[in-house]
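Problem 12. The chain below contains 131 residues. Write out its predicted structure in token notation.
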Amino acid sequence: MAYRLSGKTNARSLSLPSAKLLAACLFFTLGQAFGWFHLNSQFVWDWWKDRPWVALFTFALPCSLCYWYGIRLAYAEMGEVWGPRFLIFCLSYVTFPFLTWYFLNESMFTPKTMLCVVLAFAIALIQLFWR
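Solution.
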């Protein structure tokens, strides 16, 4: 089994991610951020505590659109839904810890969380570079 960096894609080569795949990752990251604010704004700002419907329409609709377009781009590039699913999962370990630390002052620097972040990055790198 030979592994090489190339522009060609096949099941056994490593290659750089395409612009479509990088755009999909951007959509997934935005979707994660919208999802975080949809669920956690109630803990950050008092104004959101009793406004679930406002949060729904403010954050959930753009969140869904980001995932929809991200899946569309990633599927077009990967030809399967497993790869995009893993990317969504892994990118949540980029947005969630940062937003939770920044807005709620909850540290991600615990051994358990850091190990999960490392594993998520490993999965994401496999999905992005191993074709």
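Discussion. The chain has one domain: 19-129. Students who got a different answer should revisit the alignment rule from Section 12.3.
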